[in-house]
Design brief:
Elements lengths: L2 E5 L8 H17 L3 E5 L1 H11 L7 E3 L22 H5 L4 H29 L1 E7 L7 H4 L7 E6 L11 H6 L6 H6 L2 E4 L2 H9 L9 E3 L20 E4 L8 H11 L8 E4 L5 H8 L7 E5 L5 H4 L4 E4 L9 H8 L3 E5 L13 E4 L3 H12 L2 H18 L2 H12 L7
Parallel strand pairs: 1-2, 1-4, 2-3, 4-5, 5-6, 6-7, 8-9, 8-11, 9-10, 11-12, 12-13
Helix pairs in contact: 1-15, 9-13, 12-14
């Protein structure tokens, strides 16, 4: 079989999606050896080495590490505005659109040339392009009778890489996903929520081949179930508005004095970190604990009993939720998007996105510890059975080699 590569060009922190596809690569590498590659940015490779160690970087290739292109922007989402006062004054005009087009095209083509050179060297003919990793591959679309198979994995739950205005869409095509939907051999869509959004916005051509991702998954090797001596709650996420950490803090501050033996843990960093620290200064007890960023959250999940996930639009496919369940936590989650794909009445509670409903659900847990324990035990078994890298790998392999020629 020919070699293949996952392309994920993220410049952001090593978060859930990055971990998921890195673990997928490791699984592929263990089976296919040097036929499996993971093409990333230098920043992401550095995060992998920092998190896991250099020995985990087999098959991980950072574009630019042996080239002069280290400074290339990976996501292509933003092109710096020119310094020229004249063009700045015309930034909403056709002149700026033309500038944007050529600037983004040039930067993206440089990335493509590096990827294509590496692909020729390694015999890579199939690509799983994740999110903005698809953008440099647009130059394959321009080739007549191209041999490269391109599967685009769309995780854009916010539909932020699309443009309604067709005029602007042309000039910004190297920062948007329209061509990926129109010209990829197949589109892998994260969940029904994303699929419905794409269809309602008419961003997915009727003739395009697509499927919904088989499942989310994590590396369960770090997930253990501890003694859970007390019934404790935990919130772990980027501390941003759409994650609603302040709702958790408000609920904890109301329940904490009433249940002093119960601990409420907050893990993560973000723009709301300072607000949380400030609020806690006025809290009289020590059973609400803010830990900041934690590199191994499973060490906390092992001893907590209830994980709380309060995203505004969609909790699926949160890696933290899966890790918490694998560590025996029952889940309280907002009933939004596709959250019901992995949180149900057997492993947790789905609630409305209000502080009142959260307080009610949390207090119910405190007063029904046996029920919490039962749902947590079910959760640990449930995720290991239904959300596995083996299941995901079989799915993606079938997309990369649809004629079963990749054995």
């Amino acid at each position: 079989m020919s070699a293949f590569a996952i392309v994920l060009l993220s410049q952001t922190m090593f978060g859930g999606a990055q971990k998921r596809f890195f673990n997928l690569h490791r699984h592929f590498r263990s089976i296919y050896g040097e036929k499996a590659w993971f093409i990333v940015t230098p920043a992401m490779k550095a995060e992998i080495e920092k998190t896991y160690g250099h020995e985990y970087c087999q098959g991980v290739h950072a574009i630019g590490e042996t080239h002069k292109s280290n400074s290339l922007s990976a996501t292509q989402a933003v092109v710096k505005k020119p310094k020229s006062g004249l063009i700045n004054s015309l930034k909403s005009s056709i002149a700026f659109d033309i500038y944007f087009y050529f600037k983004s095209r040039k930067r993206t083509k440089k990335q493509f040339e590096i990827i294509d050179e590496f692909a020729k060297e390694k015999g890579i003919n199939s690509f799983l392009a994740v999110y903005s990793g698809v953008l440099p591959l647009y130059f394959y679309f321009d080739r007549n009778n191209r041999k490269q198979r391109i599967v685009f994995s769309n995780m854009d739950s916010w539909f932020s890489h699309f443009e309604e205005n067709k005029f602007k869409r042309f000039f910004r095509q190297y920062t948007l996903f329209h061509r990926a939907h129109e010209q990829s051999d197949h589109v892998d869509i994260l969940s029904p929520f994303v699929l419905n959004g794409l269809k309602s916005r008419k961003y997915l051509p009727a003739e395009q081949s697509f499927s919904i991702t088989a499942c989310s998954f994590i590396d369960y090797s770090a997930c253990e179930i501890g003694e859970k001596a007390s019934l404790d709650f935990i919130f772990s996420s980027r501390l941003e508005e759409d994650k609603n950490p302040m709702n958790f803090l408000e609920a904890a501050m109301k329940l904490g004095p009433k249940y002093p033996a119960t601990n409420f843990h907050i893990l993560g960093k973000g723009r709301l970190s300072d607000s949380i620290i400030l609020k806690l200064k006025s809290y009289p007890l020590n059973n609400i604990k803010y830990h900041g960023f934690v590199s191994n959250p499973c060490s906390f999940f092992a001893e907590t009993s209830v994980f709380v996930s309060l995203q505004t639009d969609n909790n699926y496919p949160s890696q933290s939720v899966l890790e918490a369940m694998a560590c025996g936590n029952a889940i309280i989650a907002t009933d939004v998007g596709d959250t019901g794909l992995f949180v149900n009445e057997n492993n947790g509670w789905l609630i409305n996105n209000t502080t009142e409903d959260l307080i009610f659900a949390m207090e119910n847990c405190v007063n029904n510890r046996q029920e919490v324990s039962s749902r947590g035990a079910f959760a640990a078994e449930y995720v290991r059975k239904n959300f596995t890298v083996e299941k995901a790998a079989a799915y993606y392999h079938s997309l990369l080699y649809p004629n079963n020629d990749g054995k």
